[in-house]
Amino acid sequence: MRVQKVMARLVLLMMVFFLAACGSNEKKTSADSKSGETTKSEKAGKGKSDSDKDENNGNIATTVEEIAKEKAGKFAGLAYNKAVVNRALDEKIFQDKDSFQVYNTLVGLLGEGPEYKELIQFAEDFNPNVETALTKTPEEKNLEQNGGTATGAPNISILLDASGSMAAKIGGNTKMDLAKDAINQFLASMPEGSNVSLRVYGHKGSNSDGDKQVSCESTELVYELQPYNETGFKDSLGQFQPTGWTPIAKAISESKNDFGEAGKQGQNIIYVVSDGIETCEGDPVQAAKELHDSNIKAMVNIIGFDVDQNGQKQLKAVADAGGGKFETVHTADDFKRVWERERTRLYNEWSAWSAKNYNEVSAEVSKKINTLYQKKSNFSNLIYDEKSRITNAIYYLRQKEQISPDVREELESLAQQRKRILEDYVKDKYKGLIDEMEAEGRRIKKEIEEKGKEMKDKYNNN
């Protein structure tokens, strides 16, 4: 009986030990399982908090276009503060990252992508051409003021009075001879290529009543509208002598055909040289107005040679109606001074045109070049600042032993490469634009100077 009791106790103890062991193993397995789950969770959490959210898609920009597409760094521009950047770096873990990953993180914090984009876009959109519109030349302006629309060499028609009174002498020479000399001098000073014609009136018959009808019908184109030729023009002047009456109105009316038949573009200008008023019952005022208002739109100028007050009054009215000017002369010197004043006026107009356009083009070129230099300077400063900030960050990480010496060297190489890409763009693009702008300015200013000098030389009195 006692033996049975002992055996029963042994069995009971074995069962207790067995159950205890099972419970212990179960707890251990549970604990191990729980511990394993915690480790995975911690690893996942660690990976999340240390994500590369500041990196630019994991790629290294190798062109200015790629750099321009980057987002602005969290501490770019005015947001930069060295101490704040260092604290932000302290919150990250870099020991397990390669140089590319670290570099992209730094660019994500300090990159100036949008600022580069703006400066690059400015350069790409910049127009290196001179946009200043040159003002109308004196010839074009005069043409426009007188209702003309054509451009080209001026068309100058001389209407010369060949009535008998032009045979009167002044200082030993006839009015006709003085007029011919003065006309030749004037035309010789006109721009090369100017078209010239010569029409005479009152050169037939005589100044007697019996020949009045013949004389009043006499007006003749003795030198057709064509480029001025001194020899040919002088020959035409020598074909007639002062003879008859004074059909001014008829000569003005007939000159319309001279311009029309020639069909030459350019401003049409008439100079009527006369020593008296209309004596053939024509209406020179009406004739001048009709010619000026016609499609020919000629400007009618009158030079009264030794004309009395009544004659001056009528001839001035003719000039006013024809949109021109009236000048009165009494001597050969007066006659020459008329042409000299005209040359001086034209010289001054071309001088003013040349100076005005030269200065305006210079102002535009200077303004554009100064803008390019300013943008170029801003670009260079931006590159320098970004590079310095990235270099400081690399130095700080090495100080904190978050990166190895090898990684530091690779990071500095990547930063230098970025700097070189940007500097090469600035050098090539901005310097190229500046050179192109300067060359364009020189070309146009040279053209203005040459044109101005050419025309001023033609009208120079010296």
Topology:
Blueprint: H1 2-49, H2 64-68, H3 82-90, H4 99-110, H5 113-125, H6 138-145, E1 155-161, E2 169-170, E3 173-174, H7 175-188, E4 195-201, H8 212-216, E5 219-227, H9 230-237, H10 248-262, E6 268-274, H11 284-293, E7 299-305, H12 309-321, E8 323-329, H13 332-399, H14 405-459
Parallel strand pairs: 1-4, 1-6, 6-7, 7-8
Antiparallel strand pairs: 2-3, 4-5
Task: Please tell me about this protein's structure.
The chain is α/β, with parallel strands linked by helices and about 450 residues long. Among the domains are: about 120-130 and about 355-460; about 150-330, Rossmann fold (3-Layer(aba) Sandwich), CATH 3.40.50. The protein has helices at about 1-50, 65-70, 80-90, 100-110, 115-125, 140-145, 175-190, 210-215, 230-235, 250-260, 285-295, 310-320, 330-400, 405-460; strands at about 155-160, 170, 175, 195-200, 220-225, 270-275, 300-305, 325-330. Strand 2 and strand 3 (about 175) form a beta hairpin. Helix 4 crosses helix 14, helix 7 (about 175-190) runs antiparallel to helix 9 and helix 10 runs parallel beside helix 11 (about 285-295). The longest helix has about 70 residues, at about 330-400. The chain is rod-shaped. The relative contact order is 0.11. Residues about 1-55 have low confidence and may be disordered.
